[in-house]
Amino acid sequence: ENDVMGKLPLRGKRVMITAGPTYEAIDPVRFIGNHSSGKMGCELALRAAALGATVDLILGPSAIKVNHSLITVHNVVSGEQMYDAAHAVFDKVDVAIAAAAVADYKPAQVAEEKIKKKDTSMQIDLVKTKDILASLGTIKKDQYLLGFALETQNELENAKKKLEKKNLDAIVLNSLRDKGAGFQTKTNKITFIEKDGSVTEYDLKTKAEVSIDIFDKIAEKI
Ligand code: CTP
Ligand code: CA
């Protein structure tokens, strides 16, 4: 009834999006994290909802507040929590987008008490976190699976490798070569790479505009 103009192409679809950074605890007061703001993922969630989809936004620590009747926000802190939240909804969604900047490593142990300062240097043992997107790629059935790739060298080649390795339908290459693109910025310069090999390059745009371009591509395929 809200779709009289046929403008809600994702009505009846469910979309899952991971977004933001993850924080990996060192001790009760410290963590390893990164500068992701969560903005790109939140814009994607808002775009999906504007197109009529029901959205699960799995959001790491972010200052952004998302308020929309079609969006359920699942707040998480660590990569492990994000992994669990993503796997809890994945089999119910039509589209899954991994826009989060998940920490690649976490402390091998979390100290129970605040670590006291002692010597002039210290080491923290790190272990790899689970790759959420790669795991979804191994269990996916009919879901359209989209990843992001942040590269600083051999961009296209590395992004294509990630698409294949993680069994994705497409990957968004985030180009950091342009000033004004990437973390803590309002704009992104993306290249959309699909598993059939097609490559679409876009101009530097706001993250809201980028989210429109991305869902135009997704809507063609689902
Ligand atoms: N990703 C994920 N879980 C991880 C690491 C990455 O879901 N533990 C997802 C990201 O959300 C992104 C994609 O995988 O959609 C690629 O992330 P990126 O950091 O560019 O690549 P990595 O595979 O982590 O490899 P590297 O950082 O070495 O380039
Ligand atoms: Ca990484």
UniProtKB/TrEMBL annotation:
Encoding gene, per UniProt annotation: coaBC
Residue ranges of domain DNA/pantothenate metabolism flavoprotein C-terminal in the record: 10-220
One MF term in the entry's GO annotations: phosphopantothenoylcysteine decarboxylase activity
CC per GO annotation: phosphopantothenoylcysteine decarboxylase complex
Alphabetically ordered keywords of this record: Decarboxylase, Flavoprotein, FMN, Ligase, Lyase, Magnesium, Metal-binding, Multifunctional enzyme
Co-factor binding comment: Binds 1 FMN per subunit.
Binding-site list for CTP: D104, K114, F148, K162, K166
Protein name from the UniProt record: Coenzyme A biosynthesis bifunctional protein CoaBC
Function: Catalyzes two sequential steps in the biosynthesis of coenzyme A. In the first step cysteine is conjugated to 4'-phosphopantothenate to form 4-phosphopantothenoylcysteine. In the second step the latter compound is decarboxylated to form 4'-phosphopantotheine.
Organism: Dokdonia donghaensis DSW-1
Whole-protein residues included: 180 to 401 of 401
Domain of life of the organism encoding this protein: Bacteria
One record GO biological process: coenzyme A biosynthetic process
Cofactor(s) needed for function: Mg(2+); FMN
Protein family: In the C-terminal section; belongs to the PPC synthetase family. In the N-terminal section; belongs to the HFCD (homo-oligomeric flavin containing Cys decarboxylase) superfamily.
Start and end residues of each stretch annotated as Phosphopantothenate--cysteine ligase: 15-222
